[in-house]
Amino acid sequence: MSKKFYITTPIYYPSASPHLGHAYCTTLCDVIVRGKRMRGFETFFLTGLDEHGEKIQKNAEAKGVTPQEFVDEVATRFLSLWDAMKISNDDFIRTTQPRHEKTVQKIFSTMLEKGDIYLSTYTGWYCVHEESYWTATQVGDDHLCPECGRPCEKKDEEAYFYRCQKYVDDLLDFYDQNPLFITPESRKNEMVNTFIKPGLMDLCVSRTSFSWGIQVVENPSHVVYVWLDALTNYITALGYLQDDDSLFQKFWMDEETEIVHVIGADINRFHTIYWPMFLTSLGLRRPSRVFVHGLLMMKDGKMSKSKGNAISAYPLIERYGVDAVRYYLVSEVPFGQNGTFTPEQFVMRINQDLVNNFGNLMNRTVSMIIKYFGGVVPAYNAPCDALDEELDASIRATKVAYEALNDDLQVTQAYEKVMELISRANKYIEEKAPWALAKDEAKKGELEGVMARLAHVVYAGALMLSPILVEKCGEVYATLGIDKPDYEEIDKLGVLAGNEVHKGEVLFPRLDAVKETEAIIEMMNGPKEKAAA
Ligand code: MSP
Questions:
Q1: Using a 6 Å cutoff on CB, does residue 107 contact ligand 1?
Q2: H-state helical runs in 197-281
Q3: Per-residue model confidence (pLDDT) at position 531
Q4: Residue 264 Cα to ligand 1 middle (Å)
Q5: Residue nearest to atom 12 of ligand 1 (CA)
Q6: Which pLDDT score, from 0 to 100, does residue 1 have?
Q7: Residue 305 near ligand 1, beta carbon < 6 Å
Q8: Would the CB of 267 count as within 6 Å of ligand 1?
Q9: Angle between helices 20-38 and 322-332 in degrees, nearest 10
Q10: At a CB cut-off of 8 Å and minimum separation 6, what does 414 contact?
Q11: Lower Cβ count inside 10 Å, N or C end of the chain?
Q12: H helices of 254-339, where?
């Protein structure tokens, strides 16, 4: 039976157009899931939009349109971006869809019947931007939101509350029994020490001060709090409590399925404290892992639309191709850590890894196969020396490491291993000097082995890089005369023997550092978004 894997991105607020920071998270998830698919896992990849809440309502009012019109328009921008970034999601959930709204109402009713939700009054400091209430201590004397620094408003309203205290011990036991649940581990300590240990207050889960939300059936003046609404998308999209819940049974309830939520640190509290509690209330299993990734920053801090320092992915894709942008995101910002976008680093990363390393290896290999063997990949033969042995061992070891690192969500490191194999092969060319072997008839066998090995590294490299380089790997396969690339062939050295190679276009043209840095700076100053289709 194939292994099952379910991965989700946060559902983004369609309050403004998406930027490269949103693309970062979605691309990383896409790379992870494509890697699993290639290895034969049965997968489901979900992304979507979190369309309710006061902020959306206010943005729509400011534009003079209804909230639904507002989110419909922004949704097209997210969809165009995912299309341009070649995101392979299986579903796109929008919390205004009836399938979601009806299920959230059922979930709320279940929790109410069970006594996990009760009616009371809320007094607190509310940040419209973060959709969060804070205590007087948290907002301090200036009444500023501890998350975003914006002013909070004091609010008093009748509200439903979720009984957190009932589940807190169970949650801490769950953390202990599942040490990988929150990764990196520092993120778990933050939750326990900052939020749980000081005493977790019951969570306010309804609002009466605005109407753009899912109505509470039992009390229609209330709408469901946007976070209770939003978190449940991960199960409503799979058909939970709907006529056809086969995806839900397969990708959620089956204990064998690995469920991974990928999120930014800003929303860790909701995913690792409240979400597991909500699931326990509903008698459902909890996710396997919540992976907290770092942020893509700009030199002047977090990339954000409201700060006006966000860079759009479109001009980068147009100028350098989607593969270069995807590669940059995976390699430059180690998954789990913050990284800073700079034009210089973007250009350097592409030149160093894709042009000088991978593209160069392919180019040299193909040219030499054409020159020495009339364009036909020679047969692989037993190692002639320690260098051959070492390269063979590196190919196998890289596949093992690549899988283990990917399975552990150390995505950046997994792809670093592939680049190391490719640079090893470039160095092997210098060490073996095929041009010298070609001059000596007695060394013909050795030369055959060298070229067979190099062709195989190009093939293995392309297979392992294919979750990132969704366009260019096809060109590599065509160059090597491969019709049906097969990941399992990485271990089959010699499988390319007899293939006819073709010299195609340059895989990644070298970027002129000065000129391209200037071009990117211009993009950063230029129009920030592409108009919706
Ligand atoms: N709607 C909520 C999430 C609900 S999930 C049930 C939300 N939306 S958001 O639009 O603000 O998106 C937040 C997420 O977008 C972050 O957690 C992070 O994954 C991603 N990013 C937003 N800006 C980013 C960067 N600058 N860099 C990397 N990721 C970024 O919170």
A1: no
A2: 226-231, 233-236, 246-248, 268-269, 275-281
A3: 42
A4: 6
A5: 12
A6: 57
A7: no
A8: yes
A9: 90
A10: 35, 401, 402, 405, 406
A11: N
A12: 268-269, 275-281, 313-320, 322-332
Helices (H) and strands (E) in the chain, counts: 22, 15
**Please, which residues have CB within 8 angstroms of residue 115's CB and are 6 or more apart in sequence?**
163
Question: Which residue minimizes the CA distance to atom 13 of ligand 1?
Answer: 12
Residue 137 has pLDDT above 80, yes or no: yes
Tell me which residue of 348, 364, 375, 372 sits closest to 506, measured CA to CA.
364
Decide: 6 and 50 in contact? Cβ < 8 Å. Answer: no
What are 522-531's pLDDT values in tens digits? Answer: 888 765 454 4
Closest CA to 479 of 372, 358, 398, 385: 358
What's the pLDDT score for residue 527? 59
CA nearest ligand 1 atom 29, residue: 21
Q: Does ligand 1 lie within 6 Å of residue 290's CB atom?
A: no
Distance 18 CA to ligand 1 centre (A): 10
Tens of pLDDT, residues 313-329: 999 999 999 999 999 99
CA of 259 from ligand 1 middle (Å) equals 19
Q: How far is the CA of 393 from the centre of ligand 1 (A)?
A: 41
Condensed to tens digits (0 to 9), the pLDDT of residues 418-461 reads 999 999 999 999 999 999 999 999 999 999 999 999 999 999 99
Closest to 10 in 3D by CA, of 340, 284, 290: 290
| DSSP state letter for 521 | H
CA gap 252, 287 in Å, rounded = 8
CA of 9 to the centre of ligand 1 (A): 9
Give the distance (Å) from ligand 1 centre to CA of residue 13: 8
Closest Cα partner for 469 from 357, 315, 307?
357
Place of tokens 């509290």: 269
Q: Is 18 in the pocket of ligand 1 (CB under 6 A)?
A: no
Cβ-based neighbours of 474, under 8 Å, separated by 6 or more: none
Distance 11 CA to ligand 1 centre (A): 8
Ligand 1 centroid–CA 26 distance in Å is: 10
User: What does the H/E/C string look like for 256-268?
Assistant: CCEEEEEEEHHHH
The answer, yes or no, to whether residue 132 has pLDDT greater than 90, is: no
Q: What number of residues does the chain have?
A: 533
Residue 414 CB less than 6 A away from ligand 1: no
Q: What is the pLDDT of residues 243-285, one digit of tens each?
A: 999 999 999 999 999 999 999 999 999 999 999 999 999 999 9
Six-digit token string for 367: 């040219």
Atom of ligand 1 nearest to the CA of 303: 26
Q: Is the separation of the CB atoms in 172 and 140 below 8 Å? A: no
> Does 10 sit in the ligand 1 pocket, CB within 6 Å?
yes
